[in-house]
Amino acid sequence: MTEAGGIAFAIRENRTITRPGGSVLKRFRIAILLYILLFVALGELLAKLRATDWDDTLWVDIYVVNGAGSEAVEAYIDALAPDAFDAVERFFAEQAQAHGLGIERPFGIRVAGQLEAALPRVPDDPGMLGAIVFSLKMRWFATRLHWSIDGPAPSITLFAIYHDADLGVALDRSTALRKGMLALANLFASRSAGGSNQVVVAHELLHTLGATDKYDLATGQPLHPLGFAEPDRKPLYPQSQAELMAGRIPIDPHLSSMPHSLASVVIGPATALQIGWR
Fold first, then answer.
1. Final residue in a domain of this structure, among 160, 193, 210
2. Which residues lie below 8 Å from residue 135, measured CB to CB, with a gap of 6+?
3. pLDDT digits (tens, 9 = 90+) for 160-211
4. What distance in Å separates the CA atoms of residue 160 and residue 193, rounded to the nearest whole number?
5. What does the alpha-carbon distance between residue 262 and residue 258 come to, in Å, rounded to a whole number?
6. CA-to-CA distance for 182 and 205, rounded, in angstroms?
7. Would the N or C end of the chain have less CB density within 10 A of its end CB?
8. What is the pTM of this model?
9. How many contiguous H segments (helices) and E segments (strands) does the chain have?
10. For the residues of 99-126, what is the DSSP string, one character each?
11. Which range marks the domain in which residue 277 is found?
């Protein structure tokens, strides 16, 4: 079980039992599974259509995960405040106002609890088939998670996966799925990383709504002009802010830096268009 306020979510694997008439049972189980998948897919389609009309607040549930399995990360999670991601919510509200969106609170974010069940593993080199399999596993995992909680399911579910901050290792890229509106954000369990963690969370949330990366996948450098907060600035470098989906502040044509907080980040016109803000 988790600490007070957490959520335990376990998956029990079914065992296959061979018996007379097993083929009939197998076809029946396949039919039920297909029905469930159709039901889930229809729900995802309707949720996606509602998500970007911006008539109502999009609700986000964040589940925290001890990605390192260490006591240090567990202690950090235990001390995580319920308002740990309020800055992300405020950032989106401010940016929505800047783009003239007629809603005061585009996102409502809450920490839903600590997740103990193991998440489906992100494949190292997925390819098309691996990506499809991972997507299906994640969507099915999230569906069962939503069935296990009281109240309505959120519009977006994000798993905040915390890692040791003192090991000096680079984190794997975070990932998000538009189908199912799910995100996995790899974060550092450190107070000093709190601001940059919020940038990662905001970035992955917009991926679930169809926003694309605006940096060079080979170099990580922001792409001009879409990945620049001030693409018409003269001189162009250095920039003082980052475009959210570029994720970094361009210093010169070959160098960029990670913003320390959302105070140094904006949502550019191209991203606003992709998520239905323009």
1. 210
2. 177, 179, 180
3. 999 998 765 556 678 989 888 999 999 999 999 999 999 999 999 999 999 9
4. 13
5. 11
6. 8
7. N
8. 0.82
9. 6, 9
10. TT-S-S-SEEEEEEEEB-SPPPPPPSS-
11. 214-278
Residue 30 half-sphere exposure, CB side, CA atoms within 13 Å? 6
Contact at 8 Å (CB) between 113 and 6?
yes
Q: Which of 85, 80, 140, 129 is nearest to 108 (CA)?
A: 85
Q: Is residue 1 part of a domain?
A: no
At 91, list the tokens.
Answer: 């950032």
> Among 181, 210, 239, which residue terminates a domain?
210
Closest residue by Cα to residue 200 from 270, 138, 262, 256: 262
Q: What H or E segment, with its residue span, contains residue 266?
A: strand 265-266
Residue indicated by tokens 């964040």: 62
ω into 20 cis (within 30 of 0): no
Gap between the Cα atoms of 256 and 247, Å rounded: 9
Give the C-alpha separation, 240 to 251, whole Å. 8
